[in-house]
From TrEMBL, chain A:
Pfam families: Rieske (PF00355). This is Naphthalene 1,2-dioxygenase/salicylate 5-hydroxylase systems, ferredoxin component. One of its GO terms (molecular function) is metal ion binding. Keywords: 2Fe-2S, Dioxygenase, Iron, Iron-sulfur, Metal-binding, Oxidoreductase. InterPro entries: Rieske_2Fe-2S, Rieske_2Fe-2S_sf. It comes from the Bacteria.
UniProtKB/TrEMBL annotation, chain B:
PANTHER family: PROTEIN ABCI7, CHLOROPLASTIC. Belongs to the iron-sulfur cluster assembly SufBD family. Residues 27-170 form the SUF system FeS cluster assembly SufBD N-terminal domain. Pfam families: SUFBD_core, SufBD_N. This is FeS cluster assembly protein SufB. It comes from Posidoniimonas corsicana. InterPro entries: Fe-S_cluster_assembly_SufBD (IPR055346), SUF_FeS_clus_asmbl_SufBD_core (IPR000825), SUF_FeS_clus_asmbl_SufBD_sf (IPR037284), SUF_FeS_clus_asmbl_SufD (IPR011542), SufBD_N (IPR045595). Residues 178-408 form the SUF system FeS cluster assembly SufBD core domain. GO terms for biological process: iron-sulfur cluster assembly.
Amino acid sequence: MSFHSVGSVDEFPDPSSTLVEVDDRAVALIHAAGHFYAIDDVCTHDGGPLSDGPIDAEAKTIACPRHGAKFDLKSGAALTMPATKPTVAHEVKVEDGQVLVRLSD
Amino acid sequence: MTATLSSQGYDQAAFDELLAGLDEPGWMTDRRRDAFQAFCDTPWPSSKDEEWMRTDIRLFKLDQFAKPADPASSPANPGLLTQGVDLGGHVQSVDGDLVSEELSDSLAAKGVLFGGMQRMIAEHGDKLRPAIERDIVCPKYDRFAMLNAAFWTCGAVLYVPKGVAIEEPLHALSVLGAEKSADLSRTLVVLEDGAEATLLAETASASPDAAGLHCGAIELIVGAGAKLRYVNLQNWNNKVWHFAHQKAVVGKQGQLQWTIGALGAKLAKVNQHVALEGSDAEAQVNGAMFTQGRQHLTYNTHQHHEAPYCRSDLLYKTALQDKSRTVWRGMIKVDKPAQRTDAYQRNDNLMLSEHSRADSIPGLEIEADDVRCTHGSTSGKVDESQIFYAMTRGYTRKEAVRMIVSGFFQQIFDRITIESVREALGEAIGQRVQDLSNQ
C-alpha cells in the first residue's frame, strides 16, 4: 500500500476531525495537539461514523458522537464501553505541506 | 428516441437535455418535472434518519456518475438466469440505453405487452397511465426516488391482460459497462385479474472493476386472482452503488412469489415493500444474500396487510465473508381491517469470518386484534464440528464449507420453483465461497 495525499496541512486546523476518502475507504483524519492521526471512520460498536465526535487532544482520544465509546487516536483501540473492538488505525505523515495516509490493510 | 446525457451531473442543464431527447407523452414529462423540482429542493438522507443510520453514503458522489455519451455495445453474456429456459421474450439495456427487446408472436397475439419502458409508454401510454399514476413507488419517498422519477431512461414493462396465463418466463437484463456510468431504470409489471406470468430480472456488470450507479424503481401490480412470480438477481460488480425502491401490491386472492438474490454492489440500499390490498391475498418473499470484501448491503422489507385473511411469508438468508456487512430491517404492518392476518418474517445470517457484521432488526406494528404475526432472526458461525465431520468423510475443508453454506441456503432454494433460477443462484453463491481457513 502506498501513501495517498488527503490535502494540505492548512486544510486541517488544530484541533479538528475531518472525513477523508482514501482508496474508497472512509477515514477520520484528526489533527490534535500538533499531531495527525488517521483511523477508520467507523465506530465498532454500531458501525456509525466517528469523525463528528469530540476529540480529547491531551488524552489522544475521540469519542463516538452516538453512544460515547472512546477510541485511542494512535492505535485505534477501544477504550470504553459500549465499543469492545478496536477500529483500524492508519499511518500518517506530513511531507511538503501535504498530509499523507497509508492504509493499514 | 433514446436520450444521451453528455453533461456530467444531474442539474437543470442535464435535465433539459434529457427532456429534449425524449419522445413521451406530456403527462409523463410533467411527472418528471415535478420529481426534478422535488429533487432540487430535497437534501440527501442523513445518517440521523433511522432508515439510514446503518448505511453510510457520505462517500457517494452523484456528480461522478452519468449516462455515457457514447452508445454502449450489447453485452456478450445473456445473463445467468436464462440458461436452460425457453423465454417468451426479453429486454436488455446497457448503460441506461435499451439495446434489444423481443416478445414471442403468440404472446403478442394474446395482448401481452412486454418491452422497453420508453417505447411502451410512447405506444401504449393510455393503457399504462392509470397504473403509473397509482405511484406504487412514491416518486417523492426520498431523494433517490426523486432522482429516478426525474431522470429514468430505461427499464421494462410487462402487461398481461385479464385471464391470460403465460407459461414461458420473460427476461430483463440491465448491464453497466462503461466506467462511472449510471443506470436509472424503472420496471412496471401489471397483471390484470386472473393473469399469470413469470419475470426474471437481473443486473450485471460488463467489467469487474468499473464503478457505477444504479438508482431504480420497481412496481408490481398483481390483480385479483392473478399470480406473479418475480425474480430479481442483483449481480453488479463490487464497485457499484445500488439504490432501489421496490413495491408490489396484491389484489384479492392474488398470489405473489418474489425472490431476491443480492450478490453484488459496493453498497446497496433497497426498500422492498409488499402490500396485500385485497382479502385472501398471498405473498411469499425469498431473499438470498452473499457478501464479501467490504460490501455493504441494506435491505428494508415491509409486509403491509391492508385486508383480512391475507398471508405473507418472508425469509431472508445471508452469508457474509471477509469484512462485509449487511443490514436487514423488516416490518410487518397490519391495518385495523386486516383481521385473520397470517404473517411471518425471518432473517438468518451465517458469519463466515470474524470481521463480518450482520444487523437484523425485525419489527411488528399491529392494529388488528385477531392475527398471527411472528418473526425470527438468527446469526451464527459455521459449526466447526460439522466441518470436522465432513473432513473425516474425505472432503477437503473447502468442500465441507461449500456444502454447509449450500445447506444453509437450501431452505431458500427449496422455495424457488423455477429450476434455472435455483441452479443459477446456487452456482453463483458456490463460486463466492472461499476457504474458511483463509479468513
